[in-house]
Amino acid sequence: MTTTDTHDTHGTPHPGSATQLHMSLAETATAHNYQPLPVVLASGQGAWVTDVDGHRYLDCLAGYSALNFGHGHPRLTAAAQEQLARLTLTSRAFHNDRLGPFCRDLAELAGMDLVLPMNTGAEAVETAIKVARKWGYERKGVAPDRATVIVADGNFHGRTTTIVSFSDDPVARDGFGPFTPGFRTVPYGDSAALEAAVDENTVAVLLEPIQGEAGVLIPPPGYLQSVRDVCTRENVLFIADEIQSGLGRTGTTFACDAENVTPDVYVLGKALGGGIVPVSAVVSRHDILDVIRPGNHGSTFGGNPLAAAVGHAVVELLRSGEYQARAAELGERLRTRLEDLVGHGAIAVRSRGLWAGIDLDPTLITGRQACMRLLDRGILAKDTHGSTIRLAPPLVIEPSQLDWLCEQLGEVLTPPAG
Question: Is 113 among the residues known to form the active site?
Answer without folding.
Answer: no
